[in-house]
């Protein structure tokens, strides 16, 4: 692998403030010693200020899991890009759980990507398949124009652990489909794979072509297991 793999943790809707602090106590040293990967931890909004403070001046970056499609105004309950500005470096957009449970559309996703780019927060854009990428491309030239400012994730919804029709992807298919998405973009992009990555299977995914790292959900919620992923990554040779 020429560049270091990028590992993005996604805590989803887990962790109180107390649990956040406890997780950091258990994982901090192991993550700081993980020199063979870049790390972003995406957490619920309530955890973000704590994570930013606890990981200040370390190699661990902090990201949000979503952002409002509105910039500002009478939108009760929304967290806007201006509120994230200066707090996070990255933000997940278009996660299939947001589509499934909160009715997020492709148009919403593009609006969010545009706002994040405007504020120089790196969008971590989830793409379920080639059709979805085509739909994003049809909706805005931003995706292609800003290919180098976006982290792409090939994430088939069925491969996400705990999902209804849960069926883990295999590394060959993941690499093939990630490659097709990269080809469609026509540029060398950062392309992650997401779906049931853990310390046991991470090497088999990350050592494949077209996969530059991973979006890690469930395994990132356990501090010991998350740190073990970086121990496994040390075993990956050049691609
Ligand atoms: C995710 O949340 O994007 C994800 C890939 O989850 P998991 O690793 O639990 O499958």
TrEMBL record:
Example GO BP: gluconeogenesis
Cross-referenced PROSITE patterns: TIM_2
Catalysed reaction, written as an equation: D-glyceraldehyde 3-phosphate = dihydroxyacetone phosphate
Known pathway: Carbohydrate degradation; glycolysis; D-glyceraldehyde 3-phosphate from glycerone phosphate: step 1/1; Carbohydrate biosynthesis; gluconeogenesis
One annotated GO molecular function: triose-phosphate isomerase activity
Keyword Cytoplasm: yes
InterPro entries: Aldolase_TIM, TIM_sf, Triosephosphate_isomerase
GO CC aspect terms: cytosol
Subcellular localization(s) per the UniProt record: Cytoplasm
EC number(s) from the headed UniProt entry: 5.3.1.1
Keyword flag Cytoplasm: yes
Keywords, sorted A to Z: Cytoplasm, Gluconeogenesis, Glycolysis, Isomerase
Enzyme class: isomerase
Family label: Belongs to the triosephosphate isomerase family.
Subunit and partners: Homodimer.
Name of the featured protein: Triosephosphate isomerase
Originating organism: Candidatus Woykebacteria bacterium RBG_13_40_15
